[in-house]
Amino acid sequence: MTSSEVVAGSSAGATMETKLINDTKRPSPWRHLVAGGLGGMTGAIITSPFDVVKTRLQSDIYHKSIAAKHNQSNIKGLRGTLYHFVETVHMMRDIYVKESPRALFRGLGPTLFGVIPARSINFFTYGNLKSIIAGKSREDWSTHLLAAACAGIVTATATNPIWVIKTRLQLSPELSVSSKSAKVSASRKVIGDLIKNEGIRGLYRGLSASYLGVTESTLQWILYEQLKDFTKDSKLSSMSTMVSAGLAKSTATVITYPHEVIRTRMRQAVPVGEKPRYTSLIRTLKLVLAEEGVSALYGGLSAHLMRVVPNAAAMFLIYEFVTYRL
């Protein structure tokens, strides 16, 4: 074989490899949009009860009453961790019995109204931006870092008002309603009171904490992509997809969780006649640490993990299936 044939063969091989990369990892741009929305919707519906409990445990309204009732500050280590998981189950039971089964899905409307566009925007932006950044080269961790950070910022800015409304609904037991018309009225009341008392700026409460939370989604994407690369196969099996997504989400969550608590505090409603306490990211952090201690920054972590890990597993499973297998 001549040297020219070797070069030609190498070039052909490189071309085929590049084509394979493009075919397997770079589907139609709109597939990311549809797949992300479907995945987010499914995960949100399945794990809604855990989201309600998590939001309440993050709020000082519930955190202080629970701490006083159970003296949870004295429960530490593995026993404390197990206690918080049991506490999550007990709280779900109490909501079911004392309020109503529907209360476990309070805020699901705004959640879906936010999750579907949020996941669509995030997956669409990330999936297409990483292709643009990488060009014809192989994607690496820096590509995933930049694409995920940009996607997180765009998503947080676009959907913050929806999450503020959802948080207010979940923190208002008096808004537990049974009929569809009553739910609509409750949502309108929350929005009306919010605009009346806090103005348009109220819809963007907690946005700074959401930007801080971009670190979580960025870390999650990087870990997930690395786990995919570790398998040497972009088309993961269903089990591998769920395990990879679950590991990536749980790791990113534990590392960055305090921002979730801070964001919830900044979004919760201000009691009538009182001045806002959680007015900024730094002030909220200082108040929580001074008044409740470091443990308060991890309030609701067990409920959060019980929600986000299966949520991520379901979401990425559907995303991979719709994007690469349909």
TrEMBL record:
It comes from the Eukaryota. It is a multi-pass membrane protein. Belongs to the mitochondrial carrier (TC 2.A.29) family. One of its GO terms (biological process) is pyrimidine nucleotide import into mitochondrion. Keywords: Membrane, Mitochondrion, Mitochondrion inner membrane, Repeat, Transmembrane, Transmembrane helix, Transport. Solcar repeats lie at residues 27-132, 139-230, 236-325. One of its GO terms (molecular function) is pyrimidine nucleotide transmembrane transporter activity. The keyword Nucleotide-binding does not apply. One of its GO terms (cellular component) is mitochondrial inner membrane. It comes from Wallemia mellicola. It is found in: Mitochondrion inner membrane. This is Mitochondrial carrier.
